[in-house]
Design goal:
With 250 residues, the chain is an alpha/beta fold. It has ten helices and seven strands. Helix 6 links the parallel strand 2 and strand 3. 37% of the residues are buried. The structure holds S-adenosylmethionine.
Length: 250
């Protein structure tokens, strides 16, 4: 008799299948590729990001910070902090953030004075139940094993603590969806090629294939001990915000 696979094992298998379908790497190969890609694009990351989103990314990080709903002085880990845009907004909101990222290049380009460490989201050098909240901007699709990262969120966030995760999305409705597809799949790789690394910005639209569908994301978080899992579309669905509360269970 065999044990039934856990939701995170099932999610890992489904993610590998999605990756294979789009000829994307998985496992160790993905981790190495993602790290070297962000090392390469780090110096121009902020510039290209602003052009890609017309500056809307700043608004989305502010919405994500408000959605944490944590009191002033709360300790917040910004995972995959990159160059530090989220850290800056968290700090301006009166929270006490610190950042972690896999890419040394992104950390070296970090423009904040906040505490930083190089770490993989799947193995956080953070004590159990020691943070009030976690933010994570546009990195879910970059993690090699999302289920393990969510389990780490569950371990380090205190009961009652909050997570607030931003990711790219695709608008549901007709015209906006078509415009977004052209922009994200055709124009962004050209802008990325002109100002940064073409291969990296060709990979970016493809990497959305790693994202599990919303119901799967919800059950992964619930199984890891989060409740009140909520998904909200931002700016007509150009971006998505996922929030949840750590329960006392598990
Ligand atoms: C698209 S950038 C987002 C950066 C920043 N959060 C923002 O909102 O601008 C994705 C970031 O995820 C980081 N990353 C990818 N895989 C990671 C992992 N396994 N652990 C920690 N950080 C990771 C990359 O190095 C990169 O800085």
């Amino acid at each position: 008799m065999t044990d039934r696979p856990s939701s995170s094992q099932t999610a890992a298998l489904e993610a590998a299948a999605r990756a294979a379908q789009f000829d994307l790497p998985s496992g160790r190969e993905k981790t190495v590729l993602v790290r070297s890609m962000f090392d390469a694009i780090a110096p121009r990351y902020d510039l290209v990001n602003r052009m890609m989103t017309f500056g809307l990314d700043v608004r989305w990080r502010k919405q994500s910070t408000r959605a944490l709903g944590l009191p002033v002085g709360s300790r917040v880990l910004d995972l995959a902090c990159g160059t530090g845009d989220f850290l800056k907004i968290l700090s301006e909101a009166g929270l006490r953030p610190f950042g972690m990222d896999l890419s040394w290049g992104m950390l070296a380009a970090n423009h904040t004075g906040e505490a930083l460490a190089q770490a993989d989201g799947a193995l956080l050098p953070v004590a159990d139940q020691s943070v009030d909240g976690i933010t994570c901007g546009y990195a879910l699709r970059n993690f090699t094993d999302l289920g393990t990262v969510f389990a780490e969120f569950s371990r380090v966030v205190r009961p009652g603590g909050r997570i607030s995760l931003l990711e790219v999305a695709e608008p549901d409705s007709g015209l906006l969806r078509i415009g977004h597809r052209i922009w994200f799949r055709r124009v962004v790789p050209i802008i990325g090629g002109l100002f940064s690394d073409r291969a990296a910005y060709r990979y970016l639209p493809k990497s959305t294939a790693y994202l599990p569908p919303t119901p799967e994301l919800r059950s992964m978080l619930t199984d890891c001990g989060f409740s009140a899992v909520n998904r909200r579309a931002l700016s007509g669905g150009l971006s998505q915000l996922i929030t949840a509360t750590r329960t006392g269970r598990r």
